Amino acid sequence: MKSRLICLLSAVTLLCACRSHGESNEVSAPLCFSDGSSGWVKYEGNPVLGNVELGTCFDVNVIDEGPASYNMYFSWRPKNSIAVSRSEDGISWSYPEIVLTEDPESGWEDIVNRSCTLYWNGQYHMWYTGQKMPDFYSRIGYAVSDDGVHFRRVQEEPVLIPQHVYEGIAVMNPYVMRDEERGVFRMWYSSGEAVEPNVLCYAESADGVHWNRSPLNPVFVHGKEGEWDADRIGGCEVHRLPDGSYALFYIGYSDINTARIGVAISRDGIKNWKRLKANPIAEPDAGRWDGEACYKPSVVRDEAGNRWMLWYNGRLGSNEFIGMVIHEGLDLGETE
Question: How is residue 242 annotated by DSSP?
């Protein structure tokens, strides 16, 4: 049985009483990076969040709206919760603060993780994954907060559940952006198998609760045989570029245990995705903390700094921590 599944199963036995808050563990580190042929360069001081004491931290979502320059919402496995950590430089992060815990009485969220937070209309809106044990059936829930810390569920039931063959037993890893021109929320989500999903799908909603799936689903699938992402596709983030096109940052798997990060571009964010020639932009470094997999990317387009900043969770054995990658310059490069 693979390491990720073992970790998830062990998380169920953890006591909620362990949720304590400590002092800040921010540690300054020099700004030095290792070489990267794709133009994306890993920070040499990685990981930037997570250690033996904090335990596995995974599936991050970093936003620049909030009390800090960078506000990282992530899944905190030992606490069976979603937490937030803050940073002014993207490298030194505050001690995590829990923002949402599981609801065992719900019947569908024995575990909560894999979230996305959007600041809109004076509130923080979070779409998150709820998983039912022991089979990890996944659904997507919706919560809101006035301060970005204390979230309350909009409704008791999930806002998205598997309904189609391509969605398997899991809809998870939501990423949502607001389209003000059309007055809708746009969601990209992964679906398929329970622990590692298979494809990416798309849906829209006027209220964040009722979602209409695209008739083109799934909108992004695995690569060709022999490619680095030939087995399956996992969680993503989508960012609109200045020319109106969309950049999809996603997990690609060569097998269920080995994951890398890639980018694809689409004119409308739904169809005709074209992968970058430079893919993968982040991959495991053998023997290091991310030596077996590089999972879920979260990205900030830093115009002032003329760079892209990317955070991801790397895995070696049963441990998963958060690392950082930098791309100097805002041009992502050519597509295939």
Answer: T
Q: Which position has the token pair 């989508």?
A: 238
Residue indicated by tokens 């003000």 = 180
| pLDDT tens per residue across span 41-67 | 999 999 999 999 999 999 999 999 999
80-95 pLDDT tens trace:
999 999 999 999 999 9
Q: Nearest CA to 116 among 61, 57, 63?
A: 61
| pTM of this structure | 0.91
How far is it, in rounded angstroms, from Cα 290 to Cα 302? 25
Q: 166: which 2 tokens?
A: 């391509």
The tokens 């490069």 sit on which residue?
A: 333
The amino acid sitting at 246 is Y
Work out whether the CA dihedral 219, 222, 225, 226 comes out positive or negative.
Answer: positive
Residue 223: name the closest of 165, 269, 274, 281 by CA: 274
Element (H, E) at 137: strand 137-145
